[in-house]
């Protein structure tokens, strides 16, 4: 009941003092004095009839005002600063007061004030015409009760800034580390001492456990989770611990608290206020993390997937805070709940909480993987509920600005995305299906649109069945045509499969499709700063890896000391088809290329190579030559009697490939990352950077091999740049 009355008092004062949608105003000493005295006086005596509102009464009734001045004089609260705030509150109800009047009121108090005990027939609810003297010990109690209650609002904002400050610190450190790899390469290369190695080996580089980072853990069949890297886990743990600490500091109960019925209710309220405010403060951050155009990606050189990891964790923590907030307030409202729940602000709070709760489950990896578009749509709808619900929940409480920020961040991201689409234009692309597994998409780009080596773009295929979907693909700059970028999209189950079926109906399995492109996103790595840059790609991971390797090679043409190697691991020969022209281009480059073919016996779709117009395709000649040379790369092809012709023709094709790509070293079978890493480190003359994209398990293998080799005997600086981004 007490809290109910209190709520009305604070509510009316707040809305009078602040008006709607006003920014948060710090309570501080002046408002604590004002609210404490108002509440204590109003529960002690009455000076005006019920039709006059309390603030007007206290500002204008001389006895009430004297009593206020008396209350303020306790513990030296009658300072000019505090009085100014009181004068302002009175001016809000059109009562003009001056400092002199307040001083005079205090003089009147000292002369005339009486304790209720000294007034005959005193009744707290009946109007008196005398200043009332308060009991010091009670005044003290009210003062301390308001200290903990109202300070909590002020401090919660400081603590919220503390949480944001934590992330700032993380970003600054990340920026220093990641940018100095580019700006001061020498410094980092020399950091191979025992301490830095220890830190990198155990903290900054490995997966959290089991060498798994990009590859998910699965339990109970449908529960899949991606465990962040160890560094990410530490950063998140730090955040969790800090959040718990800041949710609990300076929360304590004042024995006999006049504001709350019991310790339980008081503590619930304090924690509810704290967690609600912290959650409000975190909301813009978690929206920022989720955006494609997050400036922090540039600052920290962390990619989108890393920010999505943080987005998920900040979101989870924020939701837990909101849940605690909701439970705390339910306890605090007690029997008033059923009444208050009719209020819009409470309904909206519930809407946001329920929306946030559903997000936690609809965002599960299994659902994202299985129905990405459904995930995305519901995610957006629920996120809108979170922001809109939160917005209307706090609009009158002084916290609306965090929701302005959250909405602004989101709108900004969307606006930039639309801007990028428009800047690119909506050209017609040529889409062809190659080797029955990959869609090659050639897109004419505007001349001013700069492509980024290793960068990616999001593409919309403007067909009625899928134009709204935007999918990320790495691009390379086309060799054949100027101002054209090429994407190589592996056929999977969604849009890519739709296109696969669509193309199957076209002659030559190629057609023109209008596209919208949003990009470029992503950045090249710092690999060009290392003595050896080793690029490793698996399957369709090649385009980004290739374009970065080529870009470094053209940069370091004069740098004879720098070694650039490219490893590509593919399953079958047919996969070479769609990247064949690029592989040919490597002929005169300094890149040393090795291709591993893990299933060399498979000859599916080899005939498609004939459309490639091998430069000097002459099966007889080449076949003989290679026989004579007993070329180590020449491959035994199982021939069965039925189609010997076909078998020999595929052998021809394979041999022709080896001929044409004689600048490339072919190896059959699957490499182990451990051996590959060990060998490359041994061969390198100095620092080594591994840049990789491909199958998640392969990347996790690579990461752990690099970690194992950090403390190599020769003290070579080893770096690992993961170009695979897993966010779905
Ligand atoms: C930065 C980046 C670069 C990529 N570059 C290439 C590339 O060069 N070549 C290539 O073949 N693949 C690339 N991929 C993977 C590619 O985005 C997906 O294979 C493609 O979106 C699948 O489309 P779908 O509808 O056919 O897939 P589905 O069969 O519907 O889904 C297959 C998988 O792709 C995920 N996925 C689906 N839609 C999206 C989306 N819009 N955003 C993110 N993930 C999604 C799903 O969660 C699922 O795990 C890249 C991914 C990322 C994140
Ligand atoms: N930035 C990005 O996020 C990005 C960019 C481009 C592509 N992609 C995605 O990356 C994926 C990779 O391409 P993919 O599906 O074509 O690859 P894949 O076919 O699954 O694998 C390609 C090759 O890698 C080998 N391999 C797998 N695990 C290995 C390991 N642990 N060690 C050594 N070799 C291993 C395979 O050998 P086996 O035959 O023996 O299995 C196979 O030959 C695609 O799904 C693509 O969409 C992502
Ligand atoms: C102080 O008291 C006198 C009467 O004693 C009264 O006239 C005057 O208005 C009072 N002033 C204030 C500010 O309360
Ligand atoms: C403030 O209160 C003290 C007593 O606590 C008193 O001595 C002083 O005069 C008061 N000042 C004003 C401006 O009323
Ligand atoms: C104060 O005065 C203004 C203008 O005279 C009026 O609009 C407003 O309603 C008044 N406020 C109160 C609380 O009486
Ligand atoms: C005080 O006055 C109210 C009416 O204004 C009355 O209902 C109440 O009983 C009185 N209390 C005491 C203790 O006399
Ligand atoms: C204040 O002191 C009086 C006695 O001086 C005592 O009766 C009363 O209970 C005390 N009140 C509080 C809240 O401590």
How does this model look, in words?
The protein starts with a helix and ends in a 6-residue tail after the last strand. It is built from 26 helices and 14 strands. The strands form three sheets. A six-stranded antiparallel barrel has the order 3-4-7-6-5-8. The longest helix is centred in the N-terminal third of the chain and has 48 residues. It folds into four domains: 133 residues, no CATH class; 261 residues, no CATH class; 97 residues, Beta Barrel (Elongation Factor Tu (Ef-tu), domain 3), CATH 2.40.30; 159 residues, Nucleotide-binding domain of ferredoxin-NADP reductase (FNR) module (Rossmann fold). Helix content is 53%, strand content 12%. The chain is an alpha/beta fold. β9, α20 and β10 form a beta-alpha-beta unit.
